[in-house]
Each structure stands twice: as C-alpha cells, then as structure tokens.
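[step 3/7] inverse_fold.run input=structure_tokens len=470
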C-alpha cells in the first residue's frame, strides 16, 4: 500500500505530533479539551457511517463539517488567541520580561491576611509572561511602587477604588478597580461569589496568578490555571507566590533532553499513534494515475526573435495524486510554462519537464505525451507602414467626400519577416460615413494586420473627415 515513505512524511508526522501535544498540554485542564474530543468523535463517526453506506447520517455529519471551522473559531476564540501567543517565537524578544523579584512577598502576604482578618474583600492580579490588557476593563491607572499601605488603602471599604481588582506587574501596582472576565466553569461551588469567579475566569484565559480575599468567610485563595487553592497562612502564600512569580533561573537548564522526551510518556505515545493513524487514513486511498490535457504557455523569449508557431499547443500529462483528500487535477487550472530562453531562429525542439508544471502539493508528474514541443521562431523585424482609413456606409446625397486626413499617417510595425513582407499598410477601425458631420474629427484604434504583428507607438489615429455640400 505504501511503496515508500518520503522524508517529508516523517517530518509531517513529527511536526503534527508536536503541535497536537502542545495543544493537549495547554487545554488538558479546560473544557476546550472535552469539546475537541467530542468533535473528534463526530469525525470518527462520519468516517464509519460513510464506509458503511449510512447515507442520511453521513450526509448530516458532512453538512455539519462545512460549518465546523466557524464553530471552532466561535467556541475557541479565547483559546486560539492564547495558543497563538504561546507559539509566537518573538514574544520573548518583544514581550515584557518582568518578574516578581522586586516584590516583598512576605509583606504582601501579611497584608492580604490582614485584609482577610478584617473581612475586607480583595482581588490581586499578578501578571506573568502573557499580557492581560485585553481582559482588563474600566481600570484606573496608578503605576505606583507596591506597598502594604497602598494596597490596604485601595481595598478599604468606601474608597473609590475598592470595588474591583488590583493588577501588579514588575513590582508595581499598575491598575486598580479593574473588572475581570467571569468564569463559566459549572463545577465551581455555588457559595463562591463574583470575586472568586472573576479571579478564576482570568486564569482560565491567561497565565496570571490571582490572590482572592473572601469578604464573607475571611478566607484567602489563590487562583491559577482555572483552579482555586485555599491558603492557610501568610508563610504559605508567600512561598507559593515566590514559586510562581520568581522561578529559579537555572530550572530550565537542569532538565535534560532525555527527561524532556520521556516525561509524560503515555500521552505522548497516544498522540503519536493517533497522528500516525490519521496519516495512514489520509494517505491510504491514494489516487490513481490521471491523464489531463494541459495547455502550453511560454516565457523568457529572447528579444531578437518572435514566436511563429508551436506544435503541439497542449500536451497530455499523467499525474499521480498522493492522497484522496487532494482535489482531482481535472478540477484544477494546470498549465505548462515552458522556458524559451535558449530558442534561436528556425525550428527548436524543447523537452517538457516536470518542473514546467505548477502543481498543488501531493500531485506529481509521471509522464508527458508528447515529451517535446517544436517551436518555430523567426528573426524579429521592423517596418514602417502607411495608416489606411477604413470606411463603411455612405454620405448623404447632398454631400461629397473630399478627403480623409489621418494622424499619424505612418506607424512602425514589429513582427516576423515573412509576415511583414505581406503588408504595406495597417487599417484603422471603420469610420461610418453615414453618421459623421462635415469637418468632424474622430479617433479610431489602429488595427494590427496579423496577430503576430505588433504596432508600436500610438494605439489610436485621429481622423478628420472633410466633406463638401453640393
């Protein structure tokens, strides 16, 4: 079934396995993964029903697949934006490289638990690598150094900025009174209010860390990756924030390549097997040899010669389609673009090569009939020809044509020598004498006497019709 596997096929499987695994890592703790599994189940069901000949079910699933792309964008718009940011190669170059090292985390944790003891609600957002501007609404800019007094005064009940979230970035309080997106996770307990749902909602969409103080229960929680963790003491909060906001710089260096490859091995093996199975399904039904008629086009003709004749004007091409998912070449606009750079005066035989065809990926040329094309070229010449006005119709009975004055009266034509020898003049478009007025001036196009002859210079002639009235 598979006579050979190309290096491109191996690269195809490796790249897709890496991308699918990254998507799995990002979405494994979210509802998005469950939706993806559901969509995958529908795809498998469509393949099964189509092969079993269940016409109605397969037709409904096929029609659903036509809007699947739009559904994915609508359902996963937040996740898609987040994933695109994570795979951006330039985000570390142009993005903020802030960290929490300038924060006195113990002082911050003590202040947070002091607010909890006073039953003062608070929500503190710690920005990490990913920007948060698109999720923050109605925030008031502050841009002040963090201090316990500033944080306590912001959340003090009755102050203008106490209702909303504080955003901490690079050791500074940059905004206050921010509104955050609410979580739509139905598994959150009912007793969690808007403050907790806002903190969890932001961490579902970004890598931010959010500390939350419950006004009703006086509890401190930490939201991360869509989960809530209760914190019992200031020391625990300070330690967890230190791990999340200021990871050891040598941590990435200590992870060996072997550990990277074999960690979390079962999800990786499962994804690789799924990608290989998908590749086999896509390439299993290889298209046969298809013969199509392809017209010939030419380029790079030398300036000193002109093309007179080509034989044949189209060729029969045998094409092999690697996968049945690729549209049939009969439905594609395929042409052969032949290079005439080495053509000389007289007859030339040019080989038609596979590189002359512009084909979509997955389609290869297996044969061309005929494999050569005969091109006849002649030396390009120029000749000065008289412009002749062509007329139709008749003047009214009381008028007589005295003369037709044309400007320009001669033009230069360029083309094959044997054709130029057959003509001494070029015609204009017809002037209808029955519609002209005395001494009227009209403009008409100058016509080439043959398709292979090109008229240089002006494309139109100005004609003055002089008549006399009897």
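[step 3/7] decode complete -> sequence:
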């Amino acid at each position: 079934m598979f006579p050979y596997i190309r290096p491109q096929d191996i690269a195809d499987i490796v790249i897709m396995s890496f991308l699918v695994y990254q998507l799995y890592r990002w979405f494994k703790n979210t509802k998005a993964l469950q939706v993806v599994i559901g969509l995958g189940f529908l795809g498998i069901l469509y393949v099964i029903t189509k092969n079993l000949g269940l016409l109605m079910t397969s037709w409904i699933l096929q029609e659903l697949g036509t809007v699947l792309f739009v559904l994915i964008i609508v359902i996963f718009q937040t996740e898609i934006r987040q994933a695109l940011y994570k795979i951006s190669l330039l985000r570390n170059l142009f993005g903020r490289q802030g960290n929490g090292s300038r924060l006195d985390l113990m002082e911050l944790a003590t202040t947070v638990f002091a607010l909890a003891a006073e039953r003062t609600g608070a929500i503190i957002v710690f920005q990490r690598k990913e920007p948060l501007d698109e999720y923050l609404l109605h925030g008031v800019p502050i841009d002040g150094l963090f201090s316990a007094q500033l944080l306590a005064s912001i959340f003090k009940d009755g102050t203008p900025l106490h209702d909303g979230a504080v955003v901490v970035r690079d050791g500074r309080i940059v905004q206050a009174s921010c509104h955050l997106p609410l979580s739509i996770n139905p598994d959150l307990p009912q007793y969690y209010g808007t403050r907790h749902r806002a903190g969890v909602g932001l961490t579902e969409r970004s890598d931010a860390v959010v500390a939350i103080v419950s006004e009703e229960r006086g509890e401190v929680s930490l939201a991360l990756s869509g989960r809530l963790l209760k914190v019992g003491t200031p020391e625990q909060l300070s330690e967890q924030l230190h791990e999340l906001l200021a990871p050891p710089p040598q941590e990435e260096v200590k992870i060996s390549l072997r550990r990277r490859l074999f960690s979390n091995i079962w999800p990786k093996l499962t994804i690789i097997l799924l990608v290989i199975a998908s590749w086999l399904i896509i390439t299993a039904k290889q298209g046969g040899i298809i013969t199509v008629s392809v017209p010939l086009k030419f380029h790079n003709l030398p300036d000193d010669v002109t093309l007179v004749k080509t034989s044949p004007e189209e060729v029969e091409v045998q094409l092999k389609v690697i996968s049945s998912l690729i549209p049939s070449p009969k439905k594609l606009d395929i042409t052969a673009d032949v290079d005439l750079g080495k053509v000389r005066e007289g007859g030339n035989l040019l080989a038609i090569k596979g590189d002359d065809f512009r084909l979509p990926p997955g389609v290869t040329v297996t044969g061309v009939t005929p494999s050569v094309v005969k091109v006849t070229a002649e030396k390009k010449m120029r000749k000065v020809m008289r412009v002749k006005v062509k007329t139709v119709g008749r003047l009214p009975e009381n008028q007589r044509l005295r003369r037709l004055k044309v400007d320009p009266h001669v033009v230069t034509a360029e083309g094959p020598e044997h054709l130029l020898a057959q003509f001494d003049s070029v015609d204009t478009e017809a002037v209808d004498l029955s519609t002209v007025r005395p001494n009227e001036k009209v403009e008409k196009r100058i016509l080439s006497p043959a398709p292979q002859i090109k008229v240089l210079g002006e494309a139109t002639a100005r004609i003055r019709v002089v008549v006399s009235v009897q």
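[step 4/7] annotate
The CA atoms of residues 85 and 91 lie 7 Å apart.
The longest strand covers residues 372-388.
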